[in-house]
């Protein structure tokens, strides 16, 4: 019976291993920064389309675009540079793949936007990506909350098992 409970605890804690090198709050922050990057890119394109410091905002847009791409890949598949392992949790992976698909499909429009064309369409597409990334952040948060519940449960079982061990001992 005791071995079965220990195996159960290990199974409950297994998903936590996918976040081994980085804290849960850091993962949520990184995913949240992806949302902010979409807003930043949209703002840069808006200012550039109005010829307000156009060169400066296009440079800023390109930096944000690269950072978004690198971070999205890191969240999905891992990145040594960003110290990310990539997620193995199905719901998060599925949502990040939705974002990745939209992001890849939107690249030709973003390229045209850099050239000063189709700015409104580029900004609208970034808004769609922002919405999907927001869903990803929500799923990350749900996952972290479930992990916290599992840890509490495992702690309760551990405490119960320790108390059981003490009562079985003879003094």
Structure description:
The chain is 80% helix and 0% strand. With 171 residues, it is mainly alpha-helical. α2 (24-49) packs antiparallel against α5. The chain is elongated, with a radius of gyration of 22 Å. The two termini are 24 Å apart.
What characteristic shape results from the CA principal axes? elongated
Structural class: mainly alpha
Q: What string, H for helix and E for strand, traces the elements in order?
A: HHHHH
Distance between the termini: 24 Å
Mean of the pLDDT scores? Answer: 82
Oligomeric category: single chain
Share of helical residues = over 70%
**Which stretches are low in confidence, meaning pLDDT under 50 for 5 or more residues running?**
5-21
Number of helices: 5
Instruction: Count the E strands.
Output: 0
Sheet with most strands: none
What structural keywords apply?
single chain; mainly alpha; 5 helices; 0% strand; elongated
List strands and helices in order, with pairings.
Blueprint (H helix, E strand, L loop, with lengths): L1 H12 L10 H26 L4 H24 L12 H25 L4 H50 L3
Give a short overview.
The protein contains five helices and no strands.
């Amino acid at each position: 019976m005791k071995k079965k409970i220990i195996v159960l605890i290990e199974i409950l804690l297994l998903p936590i291993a996918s976040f081994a090198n980085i804290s849960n709050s850091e993962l949520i922050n990184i995913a949240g920064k992806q949302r902010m990057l979409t807003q930043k890119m949209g703002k840069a394109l808006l200012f550039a389309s109005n010829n307000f410091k156009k060169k400066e905002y296009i440079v800023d847009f390109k930096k944000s675009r690269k950072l978004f791409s690198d971070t999205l890949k890191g969240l999905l598949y891992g990145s040594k540079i960003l110290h990310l392992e990539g997620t193995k949790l199905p719901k998060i992976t599925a949502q990040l793949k939705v974002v990745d698909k939209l992001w890849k499909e939107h690249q030709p429009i973003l390229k045209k936007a850099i050239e000063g064309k189709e700015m409104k369409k580029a900004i609208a597409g970034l808004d769609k990506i922002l919405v999907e990334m927001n869903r990803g952040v929500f799923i990350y948060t749900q996952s972290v909350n479930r992990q916290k519940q599992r840890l509490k449960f495992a702690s309760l079982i551990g405490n119960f098992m320790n108390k059981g061990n003490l009562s079985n001992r003879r003094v």
